[in-house]
Amino acid sequence: MDWKTDWGLRGRMGFTMFLLFALYVVFIGVLIQVFNVGIIFTLAMFGAFSLAQYFFSDKLALRSMGAREVSADEYPDLHRRIERLSQQADLPKPTVAVADTQVPNAFATGRNKKNATVAVTTGLLRALDEDELDGVLAHELAHVKNRDVMVMTIASFLSTIAFFIVRWGWLFSGDNRQGAPVIVAIVASLLVWVISFLLIRALSRYREYSADRGAALITGKPGALASALMTIDGRMDKVPEEDLREEAEMNAFFIIPIKAGFVGKIASTHPSTENRIEKLRELEKEMETA
């Protein structure tokens, strides 16, 4: 496999992390001023949250989806496919997880190549044929190879903290003396959340194109992934609205976003399925003439 480093993705990941770090510093400064707490305490608190996010983000992501690690005895075909595709991608075989849900989707999580997990839903396994499933699994492995899973996890951390303050900060307003500082903190958190969300959205859209190209290189079949995307997109309309809302918070990590729920209604973290399919068809023609 002629795998080439996607410097466009690397550059975007680096720039996004730089901007998020600057936003992180400003956010901490505002919280210190508003709540009049020591900088050591604040840094220690954020440091503890960051370490927890780094080491346990994969487990939290799996739990939020109701996914569990499965053995080769339970899903032999799925394990064989991931092992074969991992060898083709020159990657260690990741942990395999399955979520029992009608939503046809997949995602990768983990802090590095040696600690990665590829998760699929039972809805996805029922919806796709063999080549389409290979395309989706290769797409998730491409995320692992590109090292963008951990970057997205770190980038999502600040957004999560800010959103938590926006959503629950009013509980700490107390009397009038505390009310004004808390309102300032909520407003600042709202701005941080919006900015970080837009940065994550911009990075996520590019990384999906990059993972699509990576999947085409791993399998040698861009058309199979294009077909899978059409199948998944079409099946989303048949999934109960309640199931879609429950899982929309994982949109940035899914192969196809859920267009429902709070996050799904704000903005898509992915390019349109039509644009992704068009680029895959173009890549298919290039590979045929090469």
UniProtKB/TrEMBL annotation:
Cofactor annotation comment: Binds 1 zinc ion per subunit.
Catalytic machinery residues: E140
Boundaries of every Peptidase M48 domain copy: 76-283
Amino acids binding Zn(2+): H139, H143, E208
Cofactors demanded by this protein: Zn(2+)
Localization per record: Cell membrane
Family, as annotated: Belongs to the peptidase M48B family.
PANTHER family: PROTEASE HTPX, PROTEASE HTPX HOMOLOG
Name the UniProt record assigns to this protein: Protease HtpX homolog
Organism of origin: Halorubrum sodomense
